[in-house]
Amino acid sequence: MSEESRNNFKRLSDEDPVGPRDDKELNGTISFISSVSRVIELYLPGFFQLMISMTGGGEGDGKKNDRPNNVSGLAKRDDDHSPSEPPI
Amino acid sequence: MGKQGANKLSDEEVIGLYLKSRNSSYFTMLYSRYSGKVYSKCISLLKDEQLSDDATQDIFLKIYLNLAKFSGKSKFSTWVYSITYNYCIDYIRKKKKEKNIFSEDIEKVGDPLVDVPDHELLEIEVSRLKRVMDVIPTGDKAVLLMKYQDDMSIRDIAEVLSKSESAIKMKIKRAKHKAQASYKEIFKD
Q1: Residue A65 near chain B (CB below 8 Å)
Q2: With contact defined as beta carbons under 8 Å apart, do B45 and B95 qualify?
Q3: Which one, of B20, B98, B30, lies nearest residue B61 by Cα?
Q4: Does residue B19 register a pLDDT over 60?
Q5: Could you read off the pLDDT of B105-135 as tens digits, one per residue?
Q6: What is the CATH number assigned to the segment(s) B118-186?
Q7: Average pLDDT of B45-55?
């Protein structure tokens, strides 16, 4: 006799009703969740961009505070002919 | 993929395919494999067909929402049954307001000195075993089902019930005693 056949706990569920009702409602819920998450994935980044630009943020703003281009700065310093070391 | 090919896929393979493609037909496959067993466990604990129906739907929704978190450390079936038992026990505690779901909650049970041999319970005739399981406290029933029907490890059962492994071993010992005592009372063999 196999081990499974000696364990009647495994057979308990044979006495129970067959199974749950049709899964249409669950499928409907899952489809809804799936659609919502797809919409969120597609549009959320764009939504955040919009919010940022509406509150005055965005790509252009940082430029005023940016340091000037280092190349032009160096060139000017060279033209100044200022001493690199203080006089003794 | 044909139906025959799909049936040969393991649960973990189906999960992998679902997570890669997000095609809900893979989840439907898991539902077909496990809905009957989940429903059966709900019926045995909740004892109401309509309630068990609703519980099954809620449980599968939980599984769907948390599928990405399934690590594969335990079998998928163990994970599904853990969610099922957790759901049913929580329901009984909250909605039915049953606090005493283990025999030690109801009566002062000392530490059983002698462990009931497994075969004495496992070999009880099915219809008699069903009657015994119907009368013992829900918590005792749950631990016996987890151990002997679902082959869950002590560690998995401890996780489901948020108890230590030693506490679970004691609960199983007491549940077996309760089942044996109930059997003798009902059948007086």
Answers
A1: no
A2: no
A3: B30
A4: yes
A5: 666 656 666 788 899 899 999 999 999 999 9
A6: 1.10.10.10
A7: 90
Helices B76-94 and B49-66 cross at an angle (nearest 10°) of: 130
Query: Searching chain B, which residue's CA lies closest to the CA of residue A31?
Result: B24
Q: Assess B33–A contact: CB distance below 8 Å, yes or no.
A: no
The domain segmentation of chain B, as residue ranges, is 3-96, 118-186
Q: What token pair was written down for B45?
A: 């604990």
Residue numbers in B near A36 (CB within 8 A): none
CB contact under 8 A, B37 and A8: no
Higher pLDDT, B110 or B17: B17
Inspect the interface and report whether the beta carbons of B144 and A9 lie closer than 8 Å.
yes
Structural domain B3-96, CATH architecture: Orthogonal Bundle (1.10)
Dihedral angle over CA of B114, B118, B123, B128, nearest 10: 60
Q: Is B50 on the interface with A (CB under 8 A)?
A: no
Quick: pLDDT tens for A17-40.
566 666 666 777 777 777 777 777
Residues of A within 8 A of B59 (CB-CB) are none
Q: Are B126 and A15 in contact (CB under 8 A)?
A: yes
